[in-house]
Every structure is written in structure tokens, then in C-alpha cells.
Design a protein that fits this description.
two-stranded antiparallel ribbon; 3-stranded antiparallel β-sheet; alpha+beta; 5 strands; elongated; 3 helices; 110 residues
Length: 110
């Protein structure tokens, strides 16, 4: 099962690069308690242009995965993906309880 935060949003799948950027943003927010700047994302992802960061973020926003305010530093927010509450209970960021199958879904780590 895919992690809740990376399930396809609005019927669109992320590219490999979008997925890497999305995961970096989530981990950065989890660690620092605020979002990274465009420059921080560019440096971490090896992108030489802030315009390419902007384009990736615009695509992630269009997919409903993030939200942000243009021209405002540290404004990126992760949009929580809806899960069928009648079937799943979020036990922790890494575990979902599946009521139908009576088992846990554990987030895979690399």
C-alpha cells in the first residue's frame, strides 16, 4: 500500500523528481517545524534554477499535495490526503489500521 501522503491526488501521479521533492519537504518540515525555502530545495535537489523548483511546486500544488503563498518564505504546507475513515484509522505517521483486513499497513522506509 502506498503511504497516505504519496497516494495519487486528483488522479495524477507524481514524477520521480516531484516525489523526491515532496518527500524532502515533508522530512524538512518534520525536522525543522517550518518549510524549506526555494533555495534550500534547489540546493538539496541539485537544481540550478529556482524557476525549476517553482515549476515542481506549482505541479505539486495543482495535484493537491501542497499549498503555498507565492513570494512568501517558508509558506509551503503539506495538504493532508483524505483516507476512507470507515476503513482506516491513522495509528501514527507510519502506521494505518485497516479495519476490513484487520491488519496494519506500515510505511516502507528506504
Amino acid at each position: 500500500m502506498a503511504e497516505v501522503g504519496t497516494m495519487a491526488a486528483r488522479g495524477r501521479k507524481m514524477t520521480r523528481r516531484q516525489s523526491e521533492i515532496f518527500e524532502f519537504i515533508k522530512e524538512y518540515i518534520r525536522h525543522h517545524r517550518y518549510s524549506p525555502t526555494y533555495q534550500t530545495i534547489a540546493d538539496e535537489m541539485g537544481l540550478s534554477s529556482l524557476a525549476s523548483v517553482s515549476k515542481h511546486l506549482q505541479n505539486l500544488k495543482a495535484q493537491g499535495r501542497i499549498d503555498f503563498t507565492p513570494n512568501l518564505a517558508h509558506s509551503i504546507k503539506i495538504v493532508k490526503q483524505r483516507v476512507d475513515n470507515s476503513r482506516f484509522e491513522l495509528e501514527s505517521p507510519d502506521r494505518l489500521w485497516d479495519k476490513r483486513l484487520k491488519c496494519y499497513w506500515i510505511k516502507e522506509t528506504k
